Amino acid sequence: MLKTSYEDVKVDRQDGIAWVTLNRPDKRNAMTPKMHFEMVEILAALEYDSETKVMVLTGAGDSWCAGQDIKLFFRDLDGKIEETARVQEASHHWRWNKLFTYRKPTIAMVNGHCFGGAFTQLIACDFAIAAEDATFGLSEVNWGIMPAGFVAKAITEALSLRDALWYAMTGESFDGRTAEKIRLVNRAVPRERLREETITLATRLMKLSPDAVLATKQALKTVRGIPAEASGDYLLAKAAELRFNDKDAGRSKGMREFLDDKTLRPGISTKA
Ligand code: COA
Question: What does the pLDDT look like over 15-51, one tens digit per residue?
């Protein structure tokens, strides 16, 4: 169940959107053990919350997330084997396992710095819209470590091997426009339009059948990891599951509107 408040995260629900804000602006929203445990709880609650149709992940102040907190996540946990394992499990659970397969559409609204470990939740979200002047960096190599956690895997999911190697091996930072160019984010927009663009995309998603949107996301994300022959069979089964689960009978409704009523022209849709 969602609590009324958390220490390192803020949650606001409005008009179908759950705005989940990493909330340590003084520390550029670097991730603490507490934040990870809170995020596990928050995402679990919002996933089945009837008020939440789309989840937006953002950061307080001028940063999205400066990666793991170097002191609280790394140095303070050194030598504490069990506590480290517990924190790492929570950290990986919400940032990849939960987000990547989330039952609601997810949008990363990147309002500023995005460094290191933050790439994991960035890539796990279904969509990403960034401020043009946001700063991204796989900075690990700059101070003698490697993009571990899950970052090295996540970046090879989203980027070409060329771009992943370039930014991970040089540690060079880049802005939102470059993030769009290398397809790390869908769009980079002027900072003053970031929220509006995010709401436009969320509103568009909310107008579609939630069952169809979920099945589509699950299908695309799943077939990446399975061979073509098995994908064919999986997709037929998935489509049958969608017809079975879809409370709004979207498929027959869509066919009726297109074939009989002539009120639907699905090929003509506006840009979000
Ligand atoms: N862990 C812990 N603290 C962090 C942090 C992190 N990942 N990122 C920023 N902070 C803290 C700083 O130590 C500073 O704390 P202080 O005010 O107590 O000294 C505060 O946040 C503000 O940081 P500062 O560097 O002064 O802000 P900035 O706006 O000039 O720069 C960054 C912001 C994000 C570019 C810079 O802080 C940075 O490079 N952070 C490290 C990012 C990184 O490499 N993350 C990968 C971790 S694996």
Answer: 999 999 999 999 999 999 999 999 999 999 999 999 9
**72 CA closest ligand 1 atom index:** 2
Atom of ligand 1 nearest to the CA of 71: 2
Instruction: Tell whether the torsion through CA atoms of 189, 194, 198 and 199 is positive or negative.
Output: negative
Nearest CA among 184, 159, 67 for reference residue 118? 67
Contact 65, 31 (CB under 8 A): yes
What's the pTM? Answer: 0.95
| Token pair in block for residue 77 | 């946990």
Dist CA 261 CA 263 (whole Å): 5
Q: Sign (positive/negative) of CA torsion 167, 171, 177, 179? A: positive
How far, in whole angstroms, is CA 49 from its chain's centroid? 18
As for ligand 1, residues whose beta carbon falls within 6 Å of it are 27-28, 30, 66-71, 113, 115-117, 139-140
Look at residues 136, 143, 116 and name the one whose alpha carbon lies nearest to residue 30: 116
Amino acid at 173: S
Q: How far is the CA of 116 from the centre of ligand 1 (A)?
A: 11
Kindly state the greatest CA–CA separation across the chain: 68
Mutate to test the pocket of ligand 1, among 28, 110, 141, 151 (most ligand atoms within 8 A of CB): 28
- Take atom 1 of ligand 1 and give the residue whose Cα is closest: 69
Provide CB contacts within 8 A for 56, sequence distance 6+: 17, 18, 19, 20, 106, 107, 108, 109, 198, 202
Give nearest CA residue, ligand 1 atom 16. 27
C-beta of residue 155 within 8 angstroms of C-beta of residue 120: no
Least confident of 81-90, 128-137, 240-249: 240-249
